[in-house]
User: What shape does this take?
Amino acid sequence: MPPDVDPLSAGGAGLPADGSLAIVGNAPGTGACGAAIDAADGVVRFNNAPSFGGGTGQRVTHLALVNRGGQAREWLADGNFLKRPVVHAAQAFILPFPMLPAEHNVPEPICWTREMLALLQPLGRPVILLPETLHRQAHTLLGPRMTERPNPSTGFLVTLALLGRPAGARPALVYGFGFAGWPGHPWAAERAWFAEAEAAGRIRVHPPSPIER
Assistant: This one.
């Protein structure tokens, strides 16, 4: 992987360069894994993180927040967003999509990066913006599995970035990835990539219960 793809590697912004890492998605049915997640050196969660403080534990070092589309717009309109427990607890934030030039964000805005940066600025914590090179890498990996240009999910993009850690780092522990949700994401292709990454020893996936998923 090119060295400029992953700004999270080598312990960037407080993530462990070679320590234990838990990546916690939001699929239901994750089970009682809170103790294992809280024991990790780094704990990455996503968006509204509905299981935070419950079955998936009490810790979050990095919170990934989607910075395009309606979800980001809702957060910007929420005057209590910064008071949410998971936002308040996060030590750093990850924005998965590069900032669109202003002239490309019209007539209907889809990119809220500038606004999200301004919203988070009073917290005084690092904000990591994943680069365009990472997105090109994601398209290269997912494209052969599809008949159209892929639109990767936040979970896929952040996991791909995190796997740029140094060779020899212990496998990242992945929880709560159900590979379902908004139909615009290539869930089948992403699931296949996660399976390959696990087979290569880069991650260890703890899938949600099929009954509760």
Q: What stands out?
A: The chain is about 30% helix and 15% strand. The CA atoms of residues 7 and 130 lie 7 Å apart. Residues 187-199 form the longest helix (13 residues).
